[in-house]
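User: Can you predict the 3D structure of histidine kinase? Sequence below.
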Amino acid sequence: MDMESHPGTERMPPVQGWRRVRERLIRRVLPRSLLGRMLLIGFIPLLATQAISLELFYGNYLQIVSRRLSGDMATTIAMTLDLLERYPSPADRQWILDDAGRRAGLAMTLHEGESLDRRGSNHVLGPIDDDLVRDLRANVRWPSFVDWKQAHHRVVIRVQTPSGVLQVVTLRKRLDVAPVWLFVAWASGSALVLFLIAALFMRNQVRAIRRLARAAQLFGLGRDTVPIMPEGAQEIRKAAIAFNRMRDRINRFVEQRTTVLAGVSHDLRTPLTRLRLSLAMLPRTGTVNAAELQPDIADMIGDIVEMEHMIEGYLSFARGEGAEKPVVIRVEDLFEEIVVALRRMGAQASIGSITPAGLSVTGRGNALRRVLNNVVENARRHATRIELSAERGRREVILYIDDNGCGVDEARRESVFRPFESGKEGGTGLGLAIARDIIHAHGGHIGLEAGPLGGARVRIVLPK
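Assistant: Sure. Here are the predicted structure tokens for histidine kinase:
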């Protein structure tokens, strides 16, 4: 059946299909581990650099030097042959061979009556053999043979002449700058050493990433571990520090929610017991006078209102403000809303200094209003005057809420932010706990200290 004619079949676009095939090929060829890919990223440029330097060195410098050395040798031999041809007497020939050999640093001998059995060169690694053969053919009219495989690093050049074979013996260093394998070994060895050093450093970096991944995996499985020691590169250290902060925050979140669940059963037990007793005391037979039941009904309604108040506080604490989007908020406008609400309730509230003017903070508006409302509500119960002020730090915005109340003892300045630590009769003790939870969710900090008005000062630090 033709797939195109089938109404329920859709053919994959060619471009998308080719991309999938290419991705599969890349996954099969490239290493899957981060260490392997990092080593590959470091090895390929290193290998390419060594190959380019080798090509540039031997393609330019060595070839130029090789051509010059072979050209000088071929020219010296050609001039000697010309002199031997011009002065054919045995005495002159011997003097020419001795003088040319002494001046050029060569050992020249003429073997009369001999002939060459080979021509060209027994090749060696590098361009020098081809250059020398080419220069000999260009400068010398007769056949020649170059023997590179002599003992004691010597090279023997034999040239066929009409009277015999001219043999020239010279040191190999007169023609060859350095063996090719020596430079190749040096380049490969240095590349290998650099690669091993890079592998050791990369292994340490990857080890820190693996430790972070392992800790995250164990934490996700509920196996809480100790905080990770930040190590490695700066980015990996920041990731480890962020993970530790996230871990502490989640643990604190779970602990607080567990405490709330435990507190629900504890705090609701008393009003539920009163309701059960009130219902048990109601008459079950006979005629009931509604007026006589009004006090009991009022008490039960009060218990229900109290439970509603407690449950609303628990739900507010557990719900949080995570779904709200962060926006830029002017601190002065935020303070104005809080001060107006306080004055409506009869409290003496004012706004102090805000430096600089127009100071703003990025955060969740409703959540920050809730924080300030909880803080000022707690201050209003213990003070008659409340003042709000703010200033900008190096990388944060600091909000101050001061009151003229009795203050908080230094030993209790941390415990008042725990759930169910209430300072008034019938309170749930969740207001400041909710405030701290929201501030921590913004990446900030909230704390208590002595205030300039004689009471307590709540210091809220928020990132810009």
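The domain at 55-174 is CATH 3.30.450.300 (Beta-Lactamase). The CA atoms of residues 390 and 399 lie 4 Å apart.
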